[in-house]
């Protein structure tokens, strides 16, 4: 046996071994950039084919589904049409479309509560006074339907809501209808809206009080004043705001509390945007009344309140105070 072949190959000393490292840029590309590129390509393909198959339906087609479609198809079409109109009201605001929309609202079956709720929202966006009579009738219709025994109703086919869900839908429909009437701004709605100020449901009552101020009709003053003593704080505040919009200072001292940031932040069930809106409205209405006690508090808000919208409203109020 040749011993020359049995000796191990000589290796360099340890200190001469050098680790070969990949450049950092190559590692980043390998583990992050390339996967992102692949994901981007996959998303692009998905969006491309999604665009090719996207159902670009017209408002008239949605309206046809609302009037002739199946149970679930009707309310879904109403919801999609509501989103479409909200994004671009001018696109559909033609006399013919509004006439057909009003007819769809008026002719919808009792069970189409959600359909009417979305259609009311659409009619509010379009702001056509022709919708006022049918919306007022809708308020009464939903109120009458609250007394119906829905547990025995067999008219729902695929979608069968619970009695509790139906009750919530009826309230939501009334709220959307009231907001639509406020958005349209026709004083022909005033008597019907004031009737809802007395509604047993606190949510409906609250919106009705708010809309009474928006419509700006003096007939609302005597009806809204008793709501300053309502059991719900949000209704009391809305009543004070509505009266101030109508030039009545009966609720001004209540609004003075709203100029206190600590008080507003302590209100339950209010999100930050709602707290800001409440303070802005209080500043504007107290300034409209030229309520002298509020001047110094508004000045402090213009300098120190953390919300830019509140500071801006306060500055504007101070600038217009002497005019």
Structure write-up:
There is one protein chain. The termini are far apart. This protein has 323 residues and is mainly α. It folds into two domains: 44-150 and 160-258, Alpha Horseshoe (Leucine-rich Repeat Variant); 259-323, no CATH class. Helix content is 66%, strand content 0%. The longest helix has 30 residues, at 24-53. Helix 3 (71-87) runs parallel beside helix 5 (113-126) and helix 5 (113-126) runs parallel beside helix 7 (163-184).
Fold blueprint:
Elements: H1 24-53, H2 59-68, H3 71-87, H4 95-107, H5 113-126, H6 132-145, H7 163-184, H8 190-196, H9 202-215, H10 220-224, H11 233-245, H12 252-258, H13 261-265, H14 272-289, H15 295-304, H16 308-320
Helix pairs in contact: 2-3, 2-4, 3-5, 4-5, 5-7, 6-7, 7-9, 8-9, 9-11, 12-14, 14-16, 15-16
Number of distinct helices:
16
Strand-residue proportion: under 5%
What is the terminal-to-terminal distance?
117 Å
CATH topology of the largest domain: the name is: Leucine-rich Repeat Variant
CATH homology superfamily of the largest domain: Leucine-rich Repeat Variant
Please mark out the parts with pLDDT under 50 across 5 or more consecutive residues, or reply none.
1-12, 14-22, 50-54
Mean pLDDT: 85
Report on the biggest sheet. none
Number of domains: 2
Order of helices and strands: HHHHHHHHHHHHHHHH
Helix content: 55-70%
Radius of gyration: 31 Å
Describe the structure concisely for a colleague:
With about 325 residues, the chain is an all-alpha fold. About 65% of the residues lie in helices and about 0% in strands.
């Amino acid at each position: 046996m040749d011993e020359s072949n049995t000796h191990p190959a000589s290796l360099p000393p340890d200190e001469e071994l050098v680790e070969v490292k990949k450049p950092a840029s190559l590692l980043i590309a390998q583990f992050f950039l390339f996967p992102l590129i692949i994901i981007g390509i996959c998303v692009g393909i998905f969006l491309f084919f999604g665009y090719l198959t996207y159902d670009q339906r017209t408002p008239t087609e949605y309206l046809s589904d609302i009037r002739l479609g199946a149970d679930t198809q009707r309310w879904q079409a109403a919801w999609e049409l509501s989103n479409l109109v909200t994004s671009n009201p001018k696109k559909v605001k033609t006399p013919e479309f509004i006439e057909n929309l009003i007819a769809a609202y008026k002719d919808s079956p009792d069970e189409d509560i959600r359909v009417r709720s979305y259609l009311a929202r659409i009619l509010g966006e379009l702001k056509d006074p022709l919708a006022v009579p049918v919306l007022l009738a809708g308020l009464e219709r939903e109120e009458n339907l609250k007394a119906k025994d829905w547990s025995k109703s067999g008219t729902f086919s695929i979608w069968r809501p619970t009695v509790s869900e139906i009750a919530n839908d009826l309230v939501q429909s009334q709220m959307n209808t009231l907001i639509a009437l406020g958005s349209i701004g026709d004083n022909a709605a005033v008597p019907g809206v004031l009737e809802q100020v007395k509604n047993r449901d606190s949510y409906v009552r609250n919106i009705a009080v708010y809309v009474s101020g928006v419509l700006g009709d003096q007939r609302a003053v005597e009806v809204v004043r008793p709501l300053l003593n309502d059991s719900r704080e949000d209704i009391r505040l809305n009543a004070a705001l509505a009266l101030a919009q109508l030039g009545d200072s009966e609720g001004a001292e209540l609004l003075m509390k709203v100029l206190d940031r600590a008080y507003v932040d302590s209100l339950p069930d209010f999100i930050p945007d709602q707290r800001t809106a409440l303070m802005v409205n209080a500043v504007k209405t107290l300034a409209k009344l030229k309520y002298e006690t509020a001047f110094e508090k508004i000045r402090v808000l213009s300098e120190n309140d953390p919300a830019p919208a509140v500071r801006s409203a306060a500055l504007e109020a101070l600038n217009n105070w002497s005019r």
